[in-house]
């Protein structure tokens, strides 16, 4: 009986981890726009969103400006 109670406690406690967090509407709009731009290969629109320099981990070099981003897209 104790084992069942413990299992139910853990399942109830960790059920929140399975649910996604709600984002503010302005963030939702930004994410949807970004995903749409990437899916439709709108390089210019994606490049406008990025802040430069766009630092990457070694061995991938940093992207210093919009032109370089579009070239390496």
UniProtKB/TrEMBL annotation:
Tell me the ranges covered by the EAL domain, including all copies: 1-73
State the superkingdom.
Bacteria
Keyword field contains Signal: yes
Note the InterPro entries from the entry.
EAL_dom
Where is the signal peptide, in residue numbers? 1-20
Keywords of this entry: Signal
Protein known as? EAL domain-containing protein
What organism does the record attribute this protein to? Flavobacterium limi
């Amino acid at each position: 009986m104790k084992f069942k109670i413990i299992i139910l406690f853990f399942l109830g406690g960790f059920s929140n981890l399975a649910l996604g967090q709600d984002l503010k509407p302005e963030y939702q709009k930004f994410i949807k726009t970004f995903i749409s731009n990437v899916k439709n290969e709108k390089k210019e629109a994606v490049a406008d969103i990025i802040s430069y320099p766009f630092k990457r981990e070694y061995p991938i070099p940093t992207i210093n400006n919009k032109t370089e981003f579009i070239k390496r897209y």
